[in-house]
What does this fold into?
Amino acid sequence: MKLLLLLLTVTLLLAQVTPVTKCWGKSGRCRTTCKKSEVYYILCKTEAKCCVDPKYVPVKSKLTDTNTSLESTSAI
It folds into this structure.
């Protein structure tokens, strides 16, 4: 019974000592180093990396010749 009480106490203390800071709309976690399956896109408030699964990181689309397409739409 004493062992169970000790185990419960240690578990509750560890749960409060190691809070997880979420970032990127709760899709990422603030860490000093990211896991191999994660990438970082921004920094957290604590200057740690916001480690996110790559499928949640936005991809920049390549627009080709945007000036021409804008001129042709304004001529209409």
DSSP finds two helices and four strands in the chain. The helical segments are 2-17, 66-74. The first strand starts at residue 22 and ends at 23. Confidence is low (pLDDT under 50) at residues 68-72.
